[in-house]
């Protein structure tokens, strides 16, 4: 037998729900579309906050699904912890407009569904695409279990250098899953979509082994560890990362937070504060915005801002990008952060980034991501 969901026609009015600090709940019916939210009086819902743009975001309905679109706002629109431009809205989603939190509700999403069960040999079966996706996910999860059982996690390390003297000051540990013969991008997508304890344990194992391996690598001060967007804000993560300092050979652990997950809302600021309180470094990675965006991070400024590799590529031949990077260096200095030029492939790019004020650099010019021998001669496998 095979079971699937059939959706009936949407008939109920959706709404946004907002709770204030006193616990009062406000329900905002979405009776017309597009439904705009912003600081202007002309918006369908007005928010009197300087952090909210005049026309900040809008909610759309095309007859079959709801969508939310950011209207090029200053402080961004966030859905379920991830900054978005435009995406589908589902019942129960958490929507953040600058620093104001809403939950989206559309009872028709669940209340008007019915379950139909049909024989496996029925002509009306699931598409081959759904079957293929399920098979790939099972393969990825099984391979993940094998990796955990045999502690077979592997990391690659890429150096980060001080542009003033070329000395290696840190390493980024890069996880690149190779599971069950799948392409890395496919495996990564499948595992990130698997919301289960298995995936969390795999992340912990990769980071533990990265810290233990980094302890054997001389001459560096920092170990940079990637965070997934879905992990940002997790209650247990700061303590888990802090525990790695005892096995990292004195290297300071730096949490790399994707720029797409950096948002000016209370839970994110609290997450960064907890990392700092535990002695961890903070880096925002993949940055390709403007100086105003950096200055807006003053209250939750990182130690490092790692630029998108696209900014360094060919920067020695682009006066426009040189001006952009110089402005970013100045903005970062105002909030007490250092810029890391990522994706540096040549000496000309490195020298240009240095002349523009970048303190650190990373890229193939200084060494491609490589694995190290494990176990290290004379060092036992971790227990």
Automatic annotation (TrEMBL):
Superkingdom per UniProt: Bacteria
Which InterPro entries would you find in this protein's record? Cyclic-di-GMP_PDE-like, EAL_dom, EAL_sf, FHA_dom, SMAD_FHA_dom_sf
Q: Which residues form the EAL domain?
A: 137-383
In this chain the FHA domain maps to 35-84
Which SMART domains does the protein's record reference? EAL, FHA
Coiled coil (UniProt feature): none
Q: State a single Gene Ontology molecular function.
A: cyclic-guanylate-specific phosphodiesterase activity
Protein name per its UniProtKB record: Diguanylate phosphodiesterase
The record lists the organism as: Pirellula staleyi (strain ATCC 27377 / DSM 6068 / ICPB 4128) (Pirella staleyi)
């Amino acid at each position: 037998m095979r079971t699937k969901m059939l959706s009936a026609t949407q008939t109920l009015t959706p709404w946004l729900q907002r709770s204030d600090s006193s616990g009062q709940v406000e329900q905002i019916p979405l009776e017309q579309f597009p439904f705009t939210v912003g600081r202007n009086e002309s918006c369908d819902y007005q928010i009197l906050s300087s952090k909210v743009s005049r026309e900040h975001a809008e909610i759309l309905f095309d007859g079959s699904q709801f969508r939310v679109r950011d209207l090029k706002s200053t402080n961004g629109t966030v859905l379920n912890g991830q900054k978005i431009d435009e995406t589908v809205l589902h019942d129960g989603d958490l929507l953040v407009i600058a620093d104001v939190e809403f939950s989206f509700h559309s009872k028709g999403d669940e209340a008007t569904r019915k379950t139909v069960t049909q024989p496996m040999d029925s002509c009306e079966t699931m598409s081959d695409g759904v079957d293929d996706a399920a098979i790939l996910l099972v393969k990825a999860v099984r391979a993940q279990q094998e990796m955990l059982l045999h502690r077979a996690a592997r990391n690659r390390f890429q150096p980060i250098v001080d542009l003033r003297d070329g000395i290696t000051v840190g390493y980024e540990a890069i996880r690149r899953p190779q599971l069950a013969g799948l392409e890395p991008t496919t495996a990564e997508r499948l595992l990130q979509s698997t919301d289960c304890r298995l995936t969390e344990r795999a992340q912990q194992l990769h980071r533990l082994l990265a810290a233990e391996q980094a302890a054997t690598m001389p001459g560096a001060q920092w170990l940079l560890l990637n965070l997934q967007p879905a992990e940002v804000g997790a209650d247990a993560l700061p303590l888990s990362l802090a525990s790695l300092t005892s096995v990292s050979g004195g290297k300071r652990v730096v949490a790399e937070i994707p720029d797409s997950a950096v948002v000016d809302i209370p839970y994110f600021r609290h997450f960064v504060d907890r990392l700092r309180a535990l002695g961890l470094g903070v880096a925002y990675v993949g940055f390709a915005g403007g100086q105003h965006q950096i200055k807006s991070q003053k209250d939750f400024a990182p130690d490092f801002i790692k630029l998108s590799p696209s900014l360094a590529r060919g920067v020695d031949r682009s006066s426009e990008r040189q001006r952009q990077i110089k402005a970013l260096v100045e903005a970062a200095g105002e909030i007490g952060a250092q810029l890391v030029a990522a994706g540096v492939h040549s000496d000309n790019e490195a020298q240009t980034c240095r002349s523009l004020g970048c303190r650190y650099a990373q890229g193939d010019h200084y060494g491609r991501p490589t694995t190290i021998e494990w176990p290290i001669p004379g060092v036992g496998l971790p227990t």
